[in-house]
Specification:
single chain; mainly alpha; Dehydroquinate synthase-like, alpha domain; about 0% strand
Length: about 210
């Protein structure tokens, strides 16, 4: 529960910062949330009796809720639901698997914001699409390693033979794209699912 709720707080903050409905105030709260998760979630996961870490993560979760209350979520949540409903992956972890591929896509459309997130996670990045994409992938994977969890959805029981099913379900529900920047194509969605399943930290081709 600690791991999943913590990753969900991270996902909400990151998504809220690049959502079409994002705001300057929300961005400040989002970056604060990301820094808190980076600092305190590994401690909270390592020792459930670490009350300081748990209190800080409660604060991070609250901040992330404030962010998405006004911004909403994006395609990470929209795609992650299929990992949960289709394969029983916990909500937070399902989102976590998709952070690298979706935010590497986002880096081509909001490079300065994605670079700021990478920096908050301990990987300073130039505000350029290529560097922001590379560093956000490295940052997310480093956090997963520190948490002791695989960044690959296949290791959580997601069936690679059903990724096309996931893609079609998401693609057929256009409401999932309403708050997502960049207008991803069906092929983009398919590639993101494949990357999340493999747990790859590579940078996708620019579209």
């Amino acid at each position: 529960v600690t791991l999943n709720t913590g990753i969900d707080a991270l996902s909400q903050a990151m998504e809220g910062m690049v959502a079409r409905n994002s705001s300057a105030l929300g961005d400040v709260l989002a970056l604060d949330t990301i820094r808190l998760v980076k600092q305190w979630l590994p401690r909270a996961v390592a020792d459930g009796h670490d009350l300081e870490a748990r209190a800080q993560m409660l604060f991070a979760a609250m901040l992330s809720g404030c962010v998405i209350a006004q911004s909403g979520t994006t395609l990470v949540h929209g795609m992650g639901y299929l990992f949960t409903t289709g394969f029983g992956v916990a909500h937070g972890l399902a989102n976590g698997f998709l952070l690298t591929p979706v935010f590497q896509f986002n880096a081509w459309h909001a490079p300065a914001k994605v670079a700021a997130m990478a920096d908050a996670l301990g990987f300073p990045a130039e505000p350029t699409p290529a560097d922001a994409a590379a560093k956000i992938g490295a940052a997310v994977h480093a956090l997963f390693k520190e948490l002791g969890v695989s960044a690959a959805a296949k290791d959580a029981g997601v069936d690679g033979n059903r990724l096309d099913w996931c893609t079609e379900k998401v693609w057929s529900n256009r409401g999932r794209f309403a708050n997502q920047i960049g207008e991803p194509s069906r092929d983009d969605v398919a590639r993101m699912y494949r990357q999340a399943w493999e747990g790859a930290a590579y940078q996708p081709e620019r579209n």
